[in-house]
Fold this protein.
Amino acid sequence: MNLNDVKEFLARYDGPEMNIMEVCGSHTAAIAKYGIPGLLSPKIHLISGPGCPVCVTPSAYVDRLIDLALTPHMCVVTFGDLMRVPGSGKSLSIVKGEGARVEMVYSPADVFEMAEKEPETTFVFAAVGFETTAPVYALVLDQIVRNDIKNVKLLTALKTMPAVIDHLCANGAPIQGYIAPGHVSVVTGSNVFAPLAEKYSIPFGVSGFKGAEMLIAICGIVKAYGCGKVMNFYPSVVTAEGNTAAQQMVSRYFEPAEAAWRGMGMIPGSGLILREEFSEFDMGSRDLAEDVKINKGCCCDRVLMGKLRPYECPLFGRVCTPLNPQGACMVSTEGSCFSYFANKRRD
Ligand code: SF4
């Protein structure tokens, strides 16, 4: 099918109603950027799932980072998008303004420069993300171990995709197809979704991030309604097996563990945690308390499960805006609430 045929098929589709979930923040942003919902038949609905790393980071994790940032001779190092994520009270950005030691970096390598200049300070790297960023943190750890660096540690909240999708399917998320995450699939390989596709008889389509790529993937998913199969529509960078060197590096330092997801609670096997033999580099990731709900009325949990559209949250656009986020889904440009707000989406 050429692109015009794909567009025509998606616009005229009159088969069974389909909810298709994307589980990647970059897909959420691309869907809005290319106006994809407006090109689909009213019988095809796109739903944003738990694909934005900071949106699913529990408040207890942010609280722990804040405690560390307020401790003498400690400095929390993070990428920018975690700064404004609310904990149970404040955010890193607020406590930084109040004098806590928090540094934003663009590359994890920056932390080594800081650590060398200030040997009396312990630098705690906030390691948040999915399978895509886990290899980066494995490389950081590799450098720490090889160079015997004593004052750089990690506080991890790393997540993995298959277990959370399994959780969604098993808990009645009303989804008939998944746009499988393109970046995650580069590392994991598309085969990682095959057991889930089979178990729930749901099609998965790995997609790129351009408008045409997403339309082709959605078309493939719609056509495969009810079929438990994985289709790779992003073969230029995704293979069935993924990046095995990156997978090996990750499993050298991390092992699967139960993990807390904001609003969704503990999900077995959905996280990555430092292996016991490297626990001296861990600032307490293993004993983080389960998430606590932070704002009365915040519906991030149901939004992340695909059970509620962002604009159906009573706080959306009234109390909760990108300038005054009440929940994590409004913080990052990849968050579903942010995307719906910024693009005035109402689909
Ligand atoms: S609009 Fe704000 S408060 Fe409501 S679910 Fe989204 S992030 Fe949470």
Observations:
- The longest strand covers residues 265-274.
- Residues 1-294 form a domain with the Rossmann fold fold (CATH 3.40.50.11740).
- Residues 295, 298-300, 303, 310, 313, 315-316, 320, 326-327, 329-330, 337 surround iron/sulfur cluster (CB under 6 Å).
- The longest helix spans residues 134-146.
